[in-house]
Design goal:
5 helices; 5-stranded mixed sheet; alpha+beta; 44% helix
């Protein structure tokens, strides 16, 4: 009888080792890393645009950066190239802001990749607004970016989508209406 009681207690103990606790701990760990990556983006890209500080922005990127953006021919940019893109924006636009940003981590329900809760896979969506320096015209661009952070907290790969060609049309329309 004692053996049966000990066996039942042992089974109960094993059963009570709750995998939900492990899942909750993993979630908290992933969430903390996700929030750290969001803060990195805010403290480098958003503050960098607000202060026109390219060096601050570039601190977020790994030296091995491979960035695919809305450029002709889809040729990947490296860290130096992305710095030139920032210079172009600083030269041609003022008051650059990302409005109503939403931040997402992981790749739930993705294909062809397996679904993942990886907090180092960060997606941001929002609308960039700014003022064209030469004309004073205001512009607006919907934007979606996907970034992969490495173990050092640097973005080593990224892809973003926006209709850059619409900038010229937005500026021209406003100039015609003046």
């Amino acid at each position: 009888m004692k053996k049966t009681i000990y066996l039942l207690l042992g089974c109960a103990l094993l059963w009570s080792c709750n995998p939900q606790q492990e899942t909750a701990a993993k979630y908290q760990e992933n969430n903390a890393l996700f929030l750290k990556n969001v803060d990195t983006f805010k403290n480098h890209v958003l503050k960098g645009f607000a202060t026109e500080n390219k060096e601050l922005m570039l601190e977020m990127y790994a030296d091995s950066l491979e960035w695919n953006g809305p450029n002709e021919a889809g040729i990947p940019f490296n860290k130096e190239d992305i710095g030139e893109v920032f210079d172009n924006y600083f030269e041609n636009f003022d008051d650059i802001q990302l409005n109503n940003p939403l931040f997402f981590g992981g790749s739930v329900y993705s294909t062809p990749m397996e679904p993942s809760d990886n907090p180092n896979y960060l997606r941001v969506v929002g609308t960039w607004t700014n003022k064209h320096t030469a004309s004073g015209a205001t512009t607006s661009l919907k934007w979606h970016v996907v970034m992969w952070f490495n173990k050092d907290g640097k973005v080593y790969r990224g892809t973003d989508w926006m209709d850059v060609s619409s900038l010229e049309n937005q500026i021209s329309r406003q100039m015609e209406n003046e």
